[in-house]
Every structure is written in structure tokens, then in C-alpha cells.
What does this fold into?
Amino acid sequence: MIWIKRGVVRARQYRQETPPIKAIRPIRSMSQFDHLDLDGHLLQLLLAVIEEGSVTRAAHRLGVTQSAVSHLLDKLRAITGDPLFVKSGRGIVPTAHAQLLALRARALLDDLRSFSHAAAFEPAKISAQVTIAANDLQRDLLLPSLLRYARAQAPGLSLRVIQSGAPTPEMLREEHCQLMITPRPPEGSDIMQKRLFEDSYRVFYDASQREPPRSLDEYLASDHVTVVYEPRRRLDIDEVLAERGLVRRFVAQVPGFGGIGPFLRGSRIIATLPGLLRAYMLRGLAIAPVPVPCPVMPMYMVWHLRHHDDPLHRWLRQQLEIVAAPSLAAAAEHMPAVA
It folds into this structure.
């Protein structure tokens, strides 16, 4: 009995001397966050940090402070239950989960843009920048006319033009560009395309240095220069002729059509390229038929499925189709006769 009483006394003393424990507010788990905690700004922030690879650069791009980006990233981490980014060298890289979220974020932002434009699309009221991927031939041929024509109706529109190189589906899927102009559309069930025009291949040469190759033997015996896009992707015509077993001697390879002219002028080198290049980039050089049958070179505009019904995107594609024919006609005025 004494031992029990002492235990009771000690228990009473412990209850009297120990301060009450304060209730701790539990941290919300991912499942406790409402989906309405997400908004377009958070989605845009996620994409900016992924694309810039830096919180500082993302803040500069978004026009906010670095601490604001860090705070919103913490909120996004809590919502998604994922760290989203990990350190890699001097920068950060997205986690696998963040990369998956980025795909959904782009689609959701596209839906939000479409929602805001769905009621009534008025070109005169838009304020937007559209990124178009195009190599130098189609850039010089089409995009200046497109910009002039489109801005006459939509003064708030601007274009950002990037090199398409050897185009991939990821350029469209990951929103590196919203539209692509290329003779080689990337493949994918989510990739849309429409042919704009086609061109014929010609032999370019400096008429002050040589005569055009009149036969296949003369053609194969000549020195050639061509374009090879990274990572080592040849022009269609080069692949077609190689598959036919026609071996040519390439003395130079350049990453774009703009680099061809200096190799031809003042030399006996020739190049087999789309004939439309003679209108602008290779003006002043002579042209001749290729002494072997060649396929035509088609040119397509290409876009992602998510932009197919977007009012702004649909309108811009229509403008590109409208300016294609006049642009080709204007180019024809600058073209020399075929030798």
C-alpha cells in the first residue's frame, strides 16, 4: 500500500510540475492540398526553372525576385510531394517527376490560353510572341513577309525565330517552338503538318570559274560542298544520291545554307541545293540542272496537336499559307535563268 501511495503521489506531482504540451499543427501532405491551390503562375514558374536551369535566371525571366521564386517553389513542392529539383554541378536539374509535371503544365497553360481567347479572337487585340523554328532558306523566304502581313492586322504580335537544324518532335512537345517550317517533319501521332510548297534541286557554281557539269561523269568528278545539320544529319538529296551508289567528293561541309556561298565564289566547287536559294542567299551564282533525276524538296509547316484548335495559332497558320505564294513569286523575280 505504501508503494502504491507513493506512486500515486509521484504521479500527482508529475502532473502538477510538467507544463501542458501544446497542440502541434500537422503539416499538410500532398493529399491534403486542394487542386485549387495550383494556378497558372505556379505552372509557368515550374517551366521557367526547368528551361533556365537556375532559380536566378528564372526570376529574371519572370520579372520577380529570387526569393519569390524560391517561396513559390516551396509551395509547389508541398503540393506535389516531390523535391522537383536537385543540385547538379553549379546548377539544378529537374527530377523525373518534375519532367512529367512539365508536360502536363504545358498542356494546361495551352488550355488556359485557349480558354482566354475562345470567346472572340481579335488579331488587333492580341499581344503575343510566337517562336518559329526554321532554317535559313525558309526563314529568309517566308518569315519577313509573314511578319509584315500579320502585324498589319495584329500590331501586338512578334516573332522569335530559332534554327530548326534537324528538327525533332521534342522541339514542339517541350514548347521550344510553337511552329516549325521544314522539309523533314518530325514523326509522331501528336505532330501535325501541312505542305506549303515544293522546290527543285539545282547545281550551284561560279560561272566565272567553270562551266556547269554537263554529264554525270563531270558531276561526280567535281569537288562538292554541302550542308550537314547537327548531329550529322545530311540533306535529303545527299541521302538519295548516296543510296543510289553515286559517290561524290565533298571538300567542305557547313552547318547551314548561309555558309555555302563563300566556298563557291572564286572556286570550281559546286553544290547541289534547293533552287530557291538563288533568290536571296546565293544570288549572283549560276545554276544548272542536276545531271541525274532528283526528287522534289517539299516544305511543310508543322505544329503540335495541342495547338491545333488554338485561335491564335490557327490564325497564324492561315497567314503563313496566304503569304507563301506571293513570297515564291517575289523570289522568282530575283532568280537567274537555268544554264
Remarks:
- The chain has three domains: 38-118, 125-198+299-333, 201-295.
